[in-house]
Structures are given as C-alpha cells and as structure tokens.
Task: inverse folding
C-alpha cells in the first residue's frame, strides 16, 4: 500500500511535533543562557551547569531520585515478571480475577488516590516516611506497567520451545532461565526502563510518601519553580532529558542489532 502525504497531513505533523517538542527545545536552549532571567537571552554560556554542581540541594535530590528509581525499577521488574508468568502460564486458578484486578488497578487509579492510600497504610503500620516508603510506593505503582509489557510478550510466546527443553530433561527453573528469559528479555528490559522512567517522573505519589531527607528531584524542582524558574532548573531538566534520550537511543540500537542478527541467522538457516 502506497501512502502519500498531503499538504494537510504535513501541516498536521509539523504542528503536532512542534506542540510536543518545541517547549523542550526551548528549555534546552535557555539552559545555556548567560542571563539569570530565563526569558531574556544574553548569549551562550555553561555557567548554570557549573552552578548546578555547587547546588547541594539539587544534587542530593538527584541522588535520592536515582537510587529510588534503580531499586524500585529492579524490584518492580522482578515482581511484574512473576505476575505476568502467573497470569499467562497458569490458566484459571482460584483468585485469578482478584489478582488481575489488583495488578492492573494502579493503571487506572488516580495518583492522588494511590498516594493517599499508601500514606494511610504507612501511618497505620507506624512506618517512618522516608527513602523506604518512597521506594515501596514506586514499586507498587510501577509493577503493573511491567506486568502489562511482559504479559503481552508471553501471550505471543511459542511455548513449544519450553516444552522441548523440558522434554530434554530441563527443570522448570532451568527452562525459564535458559529458554524463556532470553526470549522475553527485550520485554523485561522495556518494562525496567518504563518503571525507571515513571519513578524518575513521579511527583504526586512521592509527595504523599516522602519524609525528612528523602526529597526527590521532581519535588525539589516543583518547590523551586513555585518561587520562580531559575536557569539551574533548566540545566537539571536538560540533563534529565539527555539521560532519558540516551537510554532510548541505546535500547533502540540494541533491539535493531538483535533484529539484524536474527534476520541474518534466519537467512543462513534458509540457505542451508
């Protein structure tokens, strides 16, 4: 099927992409502004990146955010993968409907409700709010996203490969780590990246579950923006954009290389 771009489609694409990415581009440009006034361009400068390294508050918040993101994404990926296996491999079992609802509830639940519920839970069990509570909260609401990603891959998975491995004497444990996991690894990695990005971006849930000494970067940025946007905020946001963009590019290149290798192996197998 041949697709031809009309003038209307081109205008719509340009308008749509401009609406999405022009504000981000302006933020990146003004992070190199020499003026302290973010709306007045006074020349190119990297002074605000140097000032950023001297801002202990922002650096501490960034370190907390990275630790929370890595830990919560790792735990959420493990739990989400286990939940996806249970929902896609074990068919009908008692409590499956309840488990499905509990896993997917955070997808449609407003973040305010989730944050308030977790706050009441931590208060009820007398758990001091801080780094641990933020991490637990992020695991709770990111696990369901990992489950959706991994389960969609498992539903299209060729189970005959697992059956062949077990027919050859492999235990279910060995089959999972030698056969299943390598084949669903792109989905697992995508789930981890999604969980990490959501944790990095979260403001609402973290504001309910935070405590002394556990201020995340979005909370720090929000508290400073309420008093006025500073060039340092533009600089730290630009660094976050660079980190996320680098991760997306690396993941895309890895998947593309894997696809090229798979196609080459299929061609070599067909040539035999």
Result:
């Amino acid at each position: 099927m041949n697709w031809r771009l009309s003038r209307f489609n081109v205008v719509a694409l340009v308008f749509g992409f401009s609406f999405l990415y022009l504000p981000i581009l302006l933020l990146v440009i003004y992070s190199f502004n020499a003026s302290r006034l973010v709306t007045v361009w006074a020349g190119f400068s990297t002074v605000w990146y140097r000032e950023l390294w001297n801002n202990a508050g922002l650096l501490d918040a960034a370190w907390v955010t990275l630790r929370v993101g890595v830990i919560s994404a790792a735990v959420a990926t493990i739990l989400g993968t286990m939940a996806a296996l249970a929902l896609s491999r074990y068919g009908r079992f008692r409590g499956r409907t309840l488990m499905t609802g509990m896993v997917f509830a955070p997808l449609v639940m407003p973040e305010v409700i989730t944050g308030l519920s977790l706050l009441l839970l931590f208060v009820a069990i007398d758990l001091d709010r801080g780094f641990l509570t933020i991490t637990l909260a992020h695991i709770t609401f990111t696990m369901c996203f990992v489950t959706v990603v991994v389960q969609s891959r498992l539903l299209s998975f060729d189970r005959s490969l697992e059956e062949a491995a077990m027919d050859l004497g492999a235990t279910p444990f060995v089959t999972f780590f030698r056969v299943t996991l390598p084949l669903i690894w792109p989905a697992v990695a995508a789930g981890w990246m999604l969980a990490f990005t959501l944790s990095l971006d979260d403001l609402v849930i973290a504001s309910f579950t935070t405590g002394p000494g556990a201020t995340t970067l979005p909370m720090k940025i929000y508290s400073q923006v309420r008093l006025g946007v500073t060039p340092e905020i533009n600089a730290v946001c630009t660094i976050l954009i660079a980190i996320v963009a680098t991760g997306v590019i690396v993941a895309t290149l890895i998947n593309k290389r894997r696809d090229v290798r798979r196609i080459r192996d299929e061609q070599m197998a067909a040539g035999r």
Summary: Residues 229-272 form one domain. The mean pLDDT is 82.
